[in-house]
Design goal:
The chain is α/β, with parallel strands linked by helices. It is 24% helix and 23% strand. Strands 3-2-1-4 form a four-stranded parallel β-sheet, covered by helices on one side. Helix 1 links the parallel strand 1 and strand 2. It is globular. The termini are far apart.
Length: 79
């Protein structure tokens, strides 16, 4: 399962990894480099399947790449 979280400090991603949910890759993304840095510091060594990207949700190039997309506190920012 490939999951994308649009908020890298998400407790959801941490919960999934701690519960042993079978995940191929968990991607945390945010437009803010500062938020990515915080997430990497907090969760960066948690699991090799977890990666972080600094990106704008409107500019994500992948299409139909993810099995699940979770967007917490982000939809109100997307026009």
């Amino acid at each position: 399962m490939l999951i994308k979280l649009n908020w890298p400090k998400s407790w959801v991603g941490n919960l999934l990894l701690k519960r042993g949910i079978l995940i191929e890759q968990l991607i945390g993304s945010d437009i803010s480099p500062d938020q990515i840095a915080v997430a990497q510091k907090k969760y960066g060594n948690h699991d090799q399947k977890l990666i972080f990207r600094c990106e704008d949700a409107l500019d994500v190039p992948e299409s139909n790449m993810f099995d699940v997309v979770i967007c917490l506190f982000g939809l109100h920012w997307i026009p």
